[in-house]
Design a protein that fits this description.
With 480 residues, this protein is of the alpha/beta class. The protein has helices at 28-33, 41-55, 70-80, 94-99, 127-136, 162-165, 171-175, 190-193, 209-213, 216-220, 256-261, 274-284, 293-308, 320-341, 353-360, 374-394, 400-405, 420-426, 435-443, 448-464; strands spanning 84-87, 108-112, 142-146, 151-155, 167-169, 186-188, 197-202, 224-226, 229-231, 237-243, 264-267, 412-415, 470-473, 476-479. The protein folds into two domains: 13-267, Rossmann fold (3-Layer(aba) Sandwich); 274-479, no CATH class. It is 40% helix and 12% strand. It is elongated, with a radius of gyration of 29 Å.
Length: 480
């Protein structure tokens, strides 16, 4: 017997891989002749995941920091066929991780053409589809769904109803003459319409408890109940959900019977390694200018310092979006300068970092005793993060010639609207020293903008080490 059709889980338009052509089989008879093998959803996900692992392919593209913690737990849960709930603070990548599950589905999956519940030709679950298969046999038309169509996401809100998730009686169909007891009078909700696919419910505790109760039969018996109907639909659906820890989200909770029906409860976390934090910022940030790697590192260190600070409410978390938004703000400051001053290359510098600090304070929550000290706390953590990055990247360089050149009469001026060329023309010459070249080489600078960014960072490091002074006023900074 031939293997199942179109099972290459590397192909996905959702994640930038190539999408193969839709199969040209159009009838049940054609499926049988091609040797198509039916697998239920959990077997499909399990076998595709195991195939990816055995071949050394990454089933979780774009996920950083979870490789030794969250991902092995999730893989075990999927291999076991469990429904999964992810618990973690905001900005830990829960939703992104759920969306990567799409890559574990077959690229193309056959359904009975016109089926409201996307029924598989080999396993129809409604009476009307069974009747069609009996009447039409091998000539029953088949349609094909791409894997991206088999993932449904629902943001749980307090006003979500049973009709939204499960379904309700459609009064228009009753008015057309159907009997009230006719299953055809039912308008199905998101869960039944996700048959043969994955439904993800974000912020699950926000669902009212009576709505969570409506999920119990779906999660265990795989049937649905609508206004007195008990429809024995053998739903083939994987339910996954995300939630913040209950000790922080006081808006609601996951009721105990529903928690019991999830086979796996997995805790997520922020990246443990600095490199992973930087990778997340680089991947997710929509940067409109060049942001040197060391600046991204400073933002990552800043984010991590906030997560460790006793002045910050750690139960609310410091989202990865903090560092991402910071990088985007720094990049936009550089782009603004290039537009105002006609720079060819828009490159962010350390002088742009303050613009990010000024706008990001609203994304974190301070402890109640820190009222009035918020800005001082943020500025202090930026300085320590910058100093740490300077020590790592410029360790071993002799900055004595530069310190001597700034003798109290010579100064270096930079600012939000000072171009890279103006900055470079303003730095003192260092006769007999190639310090500037060494600093630029450490930063991998290849143009004036990157060279200016590297040297400006070195000046900031000297100020933080109290070897030179710094004065800032009205968007202008003077080192001397």
């Amino acid at each position: 017997m031939r293997p199942p059709l179109a099972l290459d889980s590397r192909a996905s338009g959702v994640y930038g891989w190539m999408v193969s052509d839709r199969p040209d089989i159009s009838t049940v008879g054609g499926l049988s002749a091609a040797g198509y093998v039916y697998r239920d959803l959990r077997h499909e996900i399990r076998e595709n995941l195991l195939a990816a692992l055995s071949e050394g392919r990454d089933p979780w593209p774009g996920m950083y920091g979870f490789g030794r913690t969250v991902l092995p737990q999730l893989e075990r849960a999927l291999i076991a066929g469990h429904d999964v709930v992810l618990l973690g603070e905001r900005g830990q990548g829960k939703t992104r991780l759920l969306r990567t599950l799409v890559g574990l589905l077959d690229e193309w999956s056959p359904v009975i053409e016109g089926s409201e519940l996307n029924e598989h030709p080999s396993e129809p679950i409604t009476q009307s589809s069974r009747d069609r298969l009996l009447a039409e046999g091998d000539s029953l038309p088949v349609a094909w769904r791409h894997r991206s169509e088999r993932y449904v996401e629902k943001l749980a809100t307090p006003d979500t109803s049973v009709a939204d998730l499960i379904g309700d009686v459609d009064p228009m169909r009753v008015a057309e003459g159907r009997r009230l007891g006719d299953p055809d009078t039912i308008h199905y909700g998101l869960v039944p319409r996700s048959n043969r696919g994955i439904i993800a419910i974000n912020e699950l505790p926000d669902l009212a408890e009576r709505i969570q109760v409506s999920m119990l039969n779906v999660m265990e018996e795989r049937d649905i109940q609508i206004r007195g109907y008990v429809l024995r639909l053998s739903l083939d659906v994987l339910v996954v959900a995300s939630a913040n820890p209950e000790d922080y989200t006081n808006r609601g909770r996951i009721i105990t019977p529903l928690k019991d029906r999830f086979g796996a409860e997995i805790r997520t976390h922020y990246p443990n390694e600095l490199e992973d934090e930087v990778a997340v910022i680089r991947q997710e940030g929509r940067l409109v200018a060049d942001v040197p790697a060391v600046l991204l590192e400073i933002l990552a260190r800043y984010t991590r310092a906030l997560r460790q600070s006793p002045s910050i409410n750690q139960s609310s978390g410091v989202s990865a979006r903090f560092g991402i938004a910071g990088a985007e703000t720094v990049a936009s400051a550089a782009r603004r300068r290039s537009a105002l001053r006609g720079e060819t290359d828009a490159v962010a510098r350390i002088v742009d970092l303050q613009s990010a600090v000024d706008v990001l304070s609203g994304k974190i929550e301070f402890e109640s005793g820190e009222e009035g000290r918020e800005q001082a706390i943020l500025d202090h953590l930026v300085r320590t993060s910058t100093a740490d990055a300077v020590r790592v990247h410029y360790r071993g360089l002799d900055f004595g010639p530069l310190v001597e050149a700034l003798d109290g009469h010579t100064t270096v001026t930079t600012g939000e609207e000072v171009t890279a060329r103006e900055f470079l023309d303003n730095i003192p010459s260092l006769d007999g020293s190639n310090l500037y070249d060494e600093v630029a080489a450490r930063a991998g600078a290849v143009n004036d903008g990157q060279r200016a960014a590297a040297i400006e960072l070195a000046l900031e490091g000297l100020f933080l080490a109290r070897r030179i002074s710094k004065e800032s006023d009205d968007g202008e900074t003077i080192y001397g």
